[in-house]
Specification:
heterodimer, A: about 300 residues, alpha/beta, 2 domains, 4-stranded antiparallel beta sheet, globular, B: mainly alpha
Amino acid sequence: MIKFVNVSKTYANGTQALKNVNLEIFEGEFVAILGLSGAGKSTLLRTVNQIIDVTEGHIYIDNIDVNTFDIYGDNPDQMIEKLTNKGLSIERDKLDLQTIDVTTLKGKQLRKLRKNIGMIFQSFNIIKRMSVLQNVLTGRVAYNPTWRNILGIYKEADKQIAYRALKKVDILEKTFGRASELSGGQMQRVAIARSLAQEAKILLADEPVASLDPVTTFEVMEFLKKINQEDGVTMIANLHHVDLALKYATRIVGIKGGEVVYDIPRHGKSDKQIIKDLELVYGRAIGAKDFVGEH
Amino acid sequence: MNLKQPEAIVLKRPSQLKKYVTIALVIIILWGSARFANFSLIDIIENFHQAGRLLKQMFGKPAWNYAPKVIPPLLETIQMAIVSSLLGAIVAFPLALLASSNFTENKVINQITRFILNIFRTIPSMVLASLFVAIFGSGNFAGVAALFIFSFGLISKLLYESIEAIDQGQVEAIVSLGGNKLTVLRYGIVPQILPQFISYTLYTFEVNVRAAAVLGYVGAGGIGQFYERAYAFRYFDRVGIIVIITFVTVLIIDFISSQIRKGLV
């Protein structure tokens, strides 16, 4: 579980991006965060992996091994079994699982934690002047010593992980192509493959489809859903469009002016009721521009 | 509003005073400078025939048989430019990283580094060369040292500006993957600036070839020494051939280098 307790963030220029946020996110959820631009969605997402630090409050993550800073989720035994099936040897007795306030982590500890948390971005943020394969292999940087990363020499096992990740997002044929030659949708799939290679347990998606056309949007969302359901990756996605949240999320969180003003499981209410409720989050009526598909 | 009888629109023109003051100032500065430097158009016109005679001596019948002797010092000049540009580039890279605020997040270090770079870049390479000739004695080493300092000053200034202009998103991605500072540099920054870095190094090489050609005048090696000697002994036909060969070489190097640079960025 990821637990936000009274989290606030004020930037150096005085903008208050988050106000007293309290939120609990469980393993395997697909949480859609909705809100207007500037509501604090991006800031909220970046506090989870501490790319942005908080001004006040705590963010606790359960079952973190204090030596490796790996996250073992809400049910560690199940996670260990899953990882063992993947071929990793983990000794349950040697793990020291504790609830850790990630806002207190620094340097190496923070980098170890980030290994577990993937991130995809609106502008994809893949390294355009490198090949698709090299990009996916950057997902392995936290698993390898610095000298390997600097020289760019990767183990065959890491390459196999990269190939499998590319296959999963259906872009294996582009493996040796240059990343800059891809279309937007393909770039985002490479970015997803990078997170898969990272073997992330939590995936933060910051407006993952905002730069894509409607057809590619649904393609990318389907991949996120697949990773969420098949691999049990906890998904926290900032979304712009209401229908995407309704279609893919298991829970919808609304943010307005840095505060969580709405939080509801997807299946608690009818679509119509949720759309009506979201007027509170958006501060206006929900219209056609808030939908990707036809409504 | 009555369209049939439109009222005349009266706009007040902004004052033209600033424009006239500027023109007057430019004229005063030009005239003053010319007076101060004893510049006289009449002198130029009166001595025109002398310039013509000199040019005729130089290029009327260049000493083509002297050409083979010019080649070794010319190659030496190019070598000086290559060595100083490469060394400059190697030293410039870490300094540019220290100067860029997005890689080194410490304003004091940024400012100190930039200040040092500015000093080195501002000193003309001729002055540096004279200084090094005084310290190390005349010869190629003094020239290379002078050009090296100029090179790293120039490359690091251009490079740190490029580093500050990179797409920060790619850096953020590597940070989010758990990469440390060196890994961020390797994947988040280097791929974005490498073409510019090579381009700046080539550009500096072009500038250095031209600078190295005249450094010999203060005894810092290269073809300039031959030029100076020929001129001192009034062998104008030799001066002519040195100028022609240097000119053609610089032109060719500039052309090739700029073609490569065009392909890079």
